[in-house]
Amino acid sequence: MELIERPKYVEWLGRWRDTPLIKVITGVRRCGKSTLLELYRRALLREGVRSSNMHTYNLEDPTLERSLVSGLGLYERVASTRNPDETTYVFIDEAQHLEEFERTVAGLNLLPRMDVYVTGSNSRFLTGDLATRLTGRYVEISMLPLSYAEFVSAPATQNRITPLEPGRPVPDPLYQYLETGGFPFAVTLGQDPTMHRQYLSDILSSVILKDVATRQRLVQPTAMLSVATFLFDNIGNLTNTKRISDTLTSAGHTAGRVAVDNYLAGLVDAYLFYPVRRMDLRGRAILHGNAKYYAVDLGMRRAILGTGAADIGRQLENLVYVELQRRGLPVHVGTGRHGEVDFVTGHGDDTTYIQVAHNVDNPNTLQRELTPLKALPDQYPKLLITTDTPGTLSHGGIRQVNVRDWLLDG
């Protein structure tokens, strides 16, 4: 299978190459971390690094995991086979499966001429001993499924949006992206909705059983799936633990607030959802209580909720949020006297206000979206992102831009 290029991530790894820092790649299961390591290995080969100087350990392989029950066994294997006269590149994929991986990674990093790369599918593997041992000695990049730009450039997408015969309408890749999502293998499955649904549902099950249940001994997978389904159904809506608990209880699940808090933490730690807190637009204080949750992938959302989840406005809002995450920007929901601003991004003078809407052809809709932005007293950039704008328009200093252009411009 042809690999989908992930140029920005490969470039990031290249910038940190041969530094005395461990490169840590985190992200939801099946977002492409293993493929990224392979793309990077190929780049190293092109630059003259010998394959014998690259050691790769994929701990999703049960045979390999059994042979390296102790992480120290992996350390000893690398230490005894490395060439001390050349740099050795070590790639440990899904490191959370390795016993004593904290000591292993720390020990490898102490060896001379050693360049270590680690991936993990749960944010908690960066807490505890690893964080303590390696404070100031690792850099992290959080990987996401394919961006819109990566999606439209993928060979499978190019084949899908090419008309089969002259005069046939070209499918809109934006809506293809909303339906398929960005998990790399899902993109290669063509347009069979049954295959997409099965594959993406299986990813969710794997995350719950392997990345959450192994860390939360009292987790009930069925209840956790219900929490995930609730969050998928409520992207872009303010919610809280009580509301989720009440909804699950009414559906016949026993899920108190403490249990729901634990389930939410597990789903966030596994990079399935991202919580976004509210910010008071007047005092800039972060408000506690209600928050919004956005899904890492809209294709998975559709797989869980079905084709009836065609609320394009909230999907676009989710899409914009994930892209802001990809660009490394802090994000809050703006709350003010004149309404809500979907996203407040950046810090200080880098602040930008963003509203997202499907279309604003209706003057009343346009006015509703602009009102909270016009009420802001400062002069930071204000952006309205929609699907129906050819090019860029301006509404008294508020830029309106097509979401396709905005996604490709990052």
Q: Topology of this protein?
A:
Elements: H1 7-15, E1 22-27, H2 33-46, E2 54-58, H3 62-67, H4 71-81, E3 88-93, H5 101-110, E4 114-120, H6 129-133, E5 138-143, H7 148-153, H8 155-160, H9 173-180, H10 184-187, H11 193-212, H12 221-233, E6 238-239, H13 241-250, H14 257-269, E7 273-280, E8 286-295, H15 298-305, H16 312-326, E9 331-336, E10 339-345, E11 352-356, H17 363-374, E12 382-386, E13 392-395, E14 398-402, H18 403-408
Parallel strand pairs: 1-4, 1-5, 2-3, 3-4, 7-9, 11-12, 12-14
Antiparallel strand pairs: 6-8, 7-8, 9-10, 10-11, 13-14
Could you walk me through the main structural features you see in this protein, from its secondary elements to its overall organization?
The chain is of the alpha/beta class and 410 residues long. The chain has three domains: 7-143, Rossmann fold; 149-275 and 289-308, Arc Repressor Mutant, subunit A (Orthogonal Bundle); 331-408, no CATH class. The protein is 43% helix and 20% strand. Helix 1 crosses helix 2.
Q: Which labels suit this protein?
A:
410 residues; alpha/beta; Rossmann fold; Arc Repressor Mutant, subunit A; 3 domains; nine-stranded mixed sheet; 43% helix
Summarize, please:
The protein is α/β, with parallel strands linked by helices. The protein contains 18 helices and 14 strands.
Helicity range of the residues? Answer: 40-55%
CA-based gyration radius: 23 Å
| CATH C-level name of the largest domain | Mainly Alpha
The name of the CATH architecture of the largest domain is Orthogonal Bundle
Task: Specify the structural class.
Answer: alpha/beta
Tally of alpha and pi helices: 18
Strands across the major sheet, in which order?
A: 6-8-7-9-10-11-12-14-13
- Describe the biggest sheet? 9 strands, mixed
* Count of folded domains: 3
Average of the residue pLDDT scores: 88
CATH topology annotation of the largest domain: Arc Repressor Mutant, subunit A
Shape: globular
Q: Distance between the terminal alpha carbons, to the nearest Å?
A: 28 Å
Number of strands: 14
The low-confidence parts are none
SS strand fraction? 15-25%
